Amino acid sequence: MSIWHVTGGERLRGSLRIQGSKNAVLPVIAASLLCSSETELTNCPRLSDVEAAMDILRYLGCQAERDGDVLTIGSASPSRCDIPRDLMHRMRSSVIFLGPMLARFGEAHVSVPGGCELGPRPIDLHLQALRLLGAEIREEPGGIVCQAARLRGAEIPLTLPSVGATENAMIAACAAEGETVIYNAAREPEIETLQEYLRLLGAQISGAGSPVIRVNGFTPREHAGLRIPPDRIAAATYLCCTACAGGDVDLLDAEPDHMAPVLETLEAMGCAVTARPGHVHIGVSGRLRAPGAVVTRPYPGFPTDAAPLLMAACLKVTGPAVFIENIFSGRYRHAEELRRLGADITIRGPLAMVTGVESLHGANLTSPDLRGGAALVAAALGAEGPSLVYDDGHIRRGYDGLEESLRGLGAQIWCEGGERY
Ligand code: EPZ
Q: Helix, strand, or coil here: 366?
């Protein structure tokens, strides 16, 4: 358990470099299982989810080393094709190893990944895609057994643009004979990073970032090296922290093209936002105003992961702010905690209505999940007096040095306990 000590009232000033993207590096770590010798990844964030993914590779018989922000993965001779329950449950998205294991070994034995704080995390679209590629999949009480003597190219129509299912299908299709076409593919920037990595391995793959992705089976090369792009949700987090506390902050190595809905919303609230490739500046002074309705959608829509942070930035606006969540049923668990700061929030199913208040006061809070925990820290920066955020490891799943970065901007914040990575 970590305890985040935050005392609000300080405006944020200065600049910080945005960490590498958690949701980009995790599927690439899984896909490195296809590489026949060594992968080197730079600009990798220090996160518990990244450590969990590296531990899975080590369990499978790969070498997986970290030196600063560089991960070096040796996948010449993996020796297992199963992932035990404890490893599967350490990282919510461990299901992303299914496609790589089928591609490399022709079989995979995993436990069903747990649901998480956001609600059930079904994997039916993942399994449907792998079955269309020729995998035989048995769902048993203890887990899932996948076998594929040979994978064959297929047409894969996804009923939802699932990020993880798109990634599993892309990777497994690399080992399939013939062409695979994924329809209604997720369009997130992380999908484009995975395509870039697979191309470095020699894949004929195109369409990432569009709803249709084409993959032709190939024999992976021995080596690949990739720099992980910046984390668009971490960048949105620091922008919303500034909106909560006020101030002038420059984000370096941020990609504005990956976060357009967030920048547009913050501007609509009265933040001064300027952006160019690799750089975003935000200036916040005076009371902000409520944005129009914030409706979460698959990329390029407003990202569900940034919604809790934007809700924190809306707690003291003039006028009512409306949020509509279309991705996860359990997205609003942080709302109850924000009320302890004096926030006025009403939840009706996927609808959240925030009525801005004049001021917030410090309180003791409990972090419900990764982005909800970060939202509590952000809101506490805009509250009068001290707050404590009790967090059971959620925040460090996705943020590399959150407290150091915020302290570097002038925030009064420190974190007691918990592991560092
Ligand atoms: C990825 O999760 C991200 N995680 C999430 O970020 C992000 O919120 C989500 O995509 C956005 O869609 C990583 O990339 C590691 P999905 P993923 O499959 O792939 C339903 C964070 O905070 N669904 O796109 O698990 C599902 O229930 C995390 O960094 C099925 O019904 O998300 C959800 O409602 C949180 N069946 C919707 O699709 C399936 O087989 C989108 O899920 C798969 C998904």
A: strand
Are residue 211 and residue 250 in the same domain, yes or no? no
Per the structure, the count of domains in the chain is 2
Q: Residues 2, 395: contact at Cβ < 8 Å?
A: yes
Burial string for 326-340 (b: 16+ CB within 10 Å, else e) reads: ebbebbbbbbebbeb
**pTM of the predicted model, to two decimals?**
0.98
421 found inside a domain: no
Q: DSSP letters along 80-128, please? A: --EE-HHHHHHSTTGGGGHHHHHHHHSEEEEPPPP-BTTB----HHHHH
Distance CA 419, CA 97 (A): 25
Q: Find the helix or strand (DSSP H, E) in which 147 lies.
A: strand 143-147
Query: Which atom of ligand 1 is nearest the CA belonging to 125?
Result: 40
CATH of the domain at 203: 3.65.10.10
Length of the chain: 421
Tell me which residue has tokens 């021995």: 222
pLDDT of residue 101: 97
How high is the pLDDT of residue 397?
95
List, for the chain, all residue ranges whose pLDDT scores fall below the cut of 70. Answer: 114-116
Are 125 and 261 in the same domain? no
Please indicate, yes or no, if residue 74 is contained in any of the structural domains. yes
Q: Residue ranges of the alpha helices (H) in 285-387?
A: 307-313, 333-339, 370-381
Question: Does residue 85 contact residue 92 with C-beta atoms inside 8 Å?
Answer: no
Pocket-forming residues, ligand 1, beta carbon under 6 Å: 22-23, 26, 93, 121-126, 160, 162-165, 186, 190, 233, 304-305, 327-328, 370-371, 398
114 found inside a domain: yes
pLDDT of residue 228: 98
Task: Identify whether residues 82 and 183 lie together within a single domain.
Answer: yes
Measure 348 CA to ligand 1 centroid, in angstroms: 22
Cβ atoms 190, 155 nearer than 8 A: no
How confident is the model at residue 114, as a pLDDT?
A: 65
